[in-house]
Amino acid sequence: MEIKKIAKIFTPPAPHMVGDGFRVHNFFPGGYHIDMNPFFLMDYGSKINFSARKNPRGVGMHPHRGFETVTIAYSGAVAHHDSAGNCGVIYPGDVQWMTAASGVLHKEYHETQYSLQGGPFQMVQLWVNLPAKDKMSKPKYQAIKHSEMAYIDLPNQAGKIELIAGNYQGVKANANTFSPIHVYHARLNKGGKAHFSFPENFNTGFMVIEGAIKVNGSEKADVNHFVYFENTGTAIEIEALDNSIVLVLSGEPINEPIAHYGPFLMNTEAEINQAIADYNQGKFGYLDE
Ligand code: MN
């Protein structure tokens, strides 16, 4: 198998606040103009300490249409409410997979107990595009608890691969996706190695959440860095230089036009205008502010 070479290792772009609860580094599409299609956006909230507060920080009611938001908590806890009637809290290791599709209103904020205590907070939010045929399907919500996640123990006490989406060495993840994508956590012990194989055309990147790794036996990627791969070769090896957590992303590009405006991700300008009109006319449902 040919090695999938590193295109570039990216440092975290300057952070910005989403609402008052999420301090994020937007690696793409804003920070770096890389092709991670079907992953449209990655906001990475590197670890920071929030002070204790009675009223939870967060981002108030806002719409989405045409894609999925995938939120992963690493420290702290995130709560969510949406107009499709779904709500939930994710704790470290848990994933919230929300398919906005035809449209939801939601709000995202710090969970009450966490907010009262304060402390370290670290998370990721991905926007996963939907194929045109699924953009106006019914919204849905998948809560993927860390304790229920499929995983594989790696040989030689190297650690484990937890499956959030897709499959790894014959084991399938619980989450259903609309196009072929793989999302894993590699939780590796110092010195542990993991191997991956993704098709050449799959856009692939690894986010170092904790620790540090050596990739393909040569280049080192530190915590908070994103390793972006070329579209040649298939095989990747990582070795943990410390106890490490790596978010692994790989997906088949959706080869359809993209029209993006704010919280809407469609195929044409006309569909964006329709989304704005539908939102203004209250067609995304109702949610308390
Ligand atoms: Mn949102």
First-last Cα distance: 53 Å
| H-E order | EEEEEEEEEEHEEEEEEEEEEEEEEEEH
CATH topology term: Jelly Rolls
* Strand ordering within the main sheet: 1-22-19-24-17-14-13
- In this structure, how is the largest beta sheet organized? 7 strands, antiparallel
Record field, number of beta strands: 26
- Averaged pLDDT: 97
Percent helix range: under 10%
Unreliable residue runs: none
Structural class: mainly beta
Q: How would you name the CATH homologous superfamily?
A: Jelly Rolls
Task: Give an account of the 3D structure.
This protein has 289 residues and is mostly beta strands. It has a single domain, classed as Jelly Rolls (Sandwich), CATH 2.60.120. It has two helices and 26 strands. The chain has helices at residues 112-117, 269-280; strands at 6-10, 16-18, 22-28, 39-50, 58-64, 67-75, 78-82, 87-90, 95-99, 104-110, 119-129, 140-144, 150-153, 159-165, 167-168, 171-172, 181-188, 193-197, 203-210, 212-215, 219-222, 226-229, 235-240, 244-251, 259-261, 264-266. It starts with 5 loop residues before the first strand and ends in a 9-residue tail after the last helix. The mean pLDDT is 97. Manganese (II) ion binds next to strand 5 and strand 10.
Describe the SSE topology:
Blueprint: E1 6-10, E2 16-18, E3 22-28, E4 39-50, E5 58-64, E6 67-75, E7 78-82, E8 87-90, E9 95-99, E10 104-110, H1 112-117, E11 119-129, E12 140-144, E13 150-153, E14 159-165, E15 167-168, E16 171-172, E17 181-188, E18 193-197, E19 203-210, E20 212-215, E21 219-222, E22 226-229, E23 235-240, E24 244-251, E25 259-261, E26 264-266, H2 269-280
Antiparallel strand pairs: 1-22, 2-3, 3-4, 4-11, 5-10, 6-9, 6-11, 7-8, 7-10, 9-12, 13-14, 14-17, 15-16, 17-24, 18-23, 19-22, 19-24, 20-21, 20-23, 25-26
The protein binds manganese (II) ion (MN).
